[in-house]
Amino acid sequence: MKSSLEATEMWFLRRMMRIPWTAKKTNEEILTKAQTTRRLMTKIRKRQAKFVGHVIRRNQLEHSVTTGKFDGKRGRGRPREKMLDSLADWMNIEKPSEMIRKMSCRVGWKSLIAHASRNGT
User: Fold this and answer.
1) pLDDT-derived band of residue 99, with 50, 70 and 90 as boundaries?
2) Rounded CA gap, 64 and 99, in Å?
3) In terms of C-beta density within 10 A (0-12 exposed, 13-18 middle, 19 or more buried), how is residue 70 classed?
4) Rg of the chain's alpha carbons, rounded to an integer?
5) Three state DSSP letters for 39-108
């Protein structure tokens, strides 16, 4: 998913700069010519983190769905990647349970998001 979003971002830049896709220009050349960096994934992660923090603090049905605390059988095959796991990886937090604990303080959570988006990948 990440690579397709980054490819889409580069496609947008090429379209705005009117560079055809057949031109032999690397993504780095396009970024330097546009005097910008890739920011789409950082913006997406930042919005996801804000939304998940909001959901966790409300402590309603969405909280249970997001944390995945339901009884029942696990599906076959490879486990799906969870949003909390990917956000914890983006924010350099060891465990999603530690991240959920940090979400309870709104001001602290916002500062963690700001720090992660500055270091963003």
Assistant:
1) confident
2) 15
3) exposed
4) 18
5) CHHHHHHHHHHHHHHHHHHHCCHHHHHHHCCCCCCCCCCCCCCCHHHHHHHHCCCCCHHHHHHHHCCHHH
Q: Which pLDDT score, from 0 to 100, does residue 18 have?
A: 92
Distance CA 55, CA 84 (A): 12
Classify residue 38 by its DSSP letter. Answer: -
CA distances from 99 to 89, 95, 114 (A): 10, 7, 15
14-70 confidence digits (pLDDT tens):
999 898 888 888 888 888 988 888 888 888 888 888 888 888 887 777 666 666 666
Evaluate if pTM is beyond 0.70: no
Distance separating alpha carbons of residues 23 and 38, to the nearest angstrom:
20
Whole-number Å distance between alpha carbons of 61 and 112: 25
